[in-house]
Design goal:
This protein is an all-beta fold. The chain folds into 2 domains: about 170 residues, Jelly Rolls (Sandwich); about 80 residues, Immunoglobulin-like (Sandwich), CATH 2.60.40. It is built from no helices and 18 strands. It has a 6-stranded antiparallel beta sheet with strand order 1-10-7-12-4-3, with no helix packed on it. Strands 2, 5, 6, 8, 9 and 11 form a 6-stranded antiparallel beta sheet that branches. A hairpin with a 2-residue loop joins strand 8 and strand 9.
C-alpha cells in the first residue's frame, strides 16, 4: 500500500468517480458516530461554510482531545470493477483561525474486512490552513473487492474544526499516478412497474405512469420494455412531473391494439 501524500497537482483527465452519488453529500446520508462521541460533533454542512466544488461537506467540531469515529454508511463504499491500482483522494480544509492546532486522523477503509489507514495531519509541511488540501493514496484492489470507508480524527484544541469534501476513488487504468480533477459520481435513479395499457384505439395513444423519486422535468429517460407482440405500436417515455415518469404507448395502426401487460423499467443517469 502506497503512503498517503498531500498534493496540489491533479491530472486534467476524466476518470469515473466510483463512489456512490451519495458521497457528494448533496443528498441525505446516514451519519453515525461509532466511537468517542464526547470528543466531537460530526455533521453535513452546506452553503454557509467552505465548500469544495459547490458540494456540501462533512464538518467536525472538536469538544475534547480524544478520538472521534464516525461513518456515512454505504455512501463511501463500492465494489471494484476490475483488478488494478485505485487512487483514493479526499479534500481537507481547516480554517486559518486554527493554524496553531494539530489535527490528525485516519480515513480507514476495509477491503474485504482487512483494514487500511489513510493517515492525514495538519502538521504536514505542505498543509495550507484556510485552503482545501488534497490528500491521496494509491490502493491495489482486485475485481469484486468490497471497499468500505469511515473516519477517525482528533485535535489538541477544543473548538477546532475540520471539513472533509471531494471524496473520490478512481481506477488508475491510464497510469495517472495523481488524482484527476474531481467529478461527481453518476447519479442513477431507477424503478420498474407492471403496466397494462388495455385497448388503444386506431391512431391513438395511452399514458400510464411510474413513480421515480428524484426525476425532474427535462431529464432524459432510458426505457426498458417487454418484447413487442406486433409492429403496430411502440413505447416512449418522459418525465411528466417531479418524481413521475410517463410511459406512452402509441398505436399507429388503423385498428385497435391491446398490448399485453408487462414489466417496464425506467432509469435516469446524470
Amino acid at each position: 500500500m502506497a503512503e498517503v501524500v498531500i498534493t496540489q497537482q491533479k491530472k486534467a483527465r476524466y476518470a469515473e468517480n466510483l463512489f456512490p452519488y451519495e458521497s457528494t453529500l448533496n443528498v441525505p446520508v446516514t451519519l453515525t458516530t461509532t466511537g468517542g462521541g464526547a470528543n466531537g460533533v460530526a455533521e453535513v454542512v452546506g452553503t454557509l461554510v467552505p465548500i469544495f466544488n459547490r458540494l456540501n461537506s462533512l464538518r467536525v467540531i472538536f469538544t475534547d482531545t480524544g478520538v472521534l469515529v464516525f461513518n456515512i454508511g454505504s455512501a463511501l463504499s463500492f465494489t471494484a470493477p476490475s483488478d488494478g491500482n485505485y487512487i483514493l483522494s479526499c479534500e481537507i480544509f481547516v480554517p486559518a483561525d486554527y493554524d496553531t492546532s494539530t489535527i490528525i486522523g485516519k480515513i480507514t477503509s476495509a477491503v474485504n474486512i482487512a483494514e487500511n489507514d489513510f493517515d492525514f495531519t495538519t502538521d504536514n509541511d505542505s498543509f495550507v490552513f484556510g485552503a482545501w488540501n488534497t490528500f491521496t493514496q494509491i490502493i491495489p484492489l482486485n475485481a469484486g473487492d468490497l471497499f468500505e470507508t469511515w473516519f477517525k480524527t482528533q485535535s489538541d484544541t477544543v473548538g477546532a474544526r475540520i471539513y472533509f469534501g471531494g471524496l473520490n476513488i478512481v481506477l488508475d487504468d491510464r497510469q495517472l499516478g495523481l488524482p484527476p480533477i474531481y467529478r461527481e459520481p453518476y447519479n442513477v435513479i431507477s424503478n420498474s412497474a407492471t403496466l397494462n395499457f388495455g385497448s388503444i384505439g386506431a391512431n391513438d395513444y395511452a399514458d400510464l405512469t411510474i413513480a421515480l423519486v428524484g426525476a425532474k422535468v427535462g431529464d432524459a429517460v432510458q426505457l426498458g420494455t417487454p418484447a413487442l407482440t406486433t409492429d403496430k405500436y411502440f413505447f416512449t417515455s418522459f418525465v411528466s412531473a417531479t418524481d413521475v415518469v410517463t410511459v406512452r404507448c402509441i398505436n399507429y395502426d388503423g385498428g385497435a391494439v391491446d398490448p399485453a401487460s408487462g414489466t417496464f423499467n425506467v432509469k435516469i443517469a446524470r
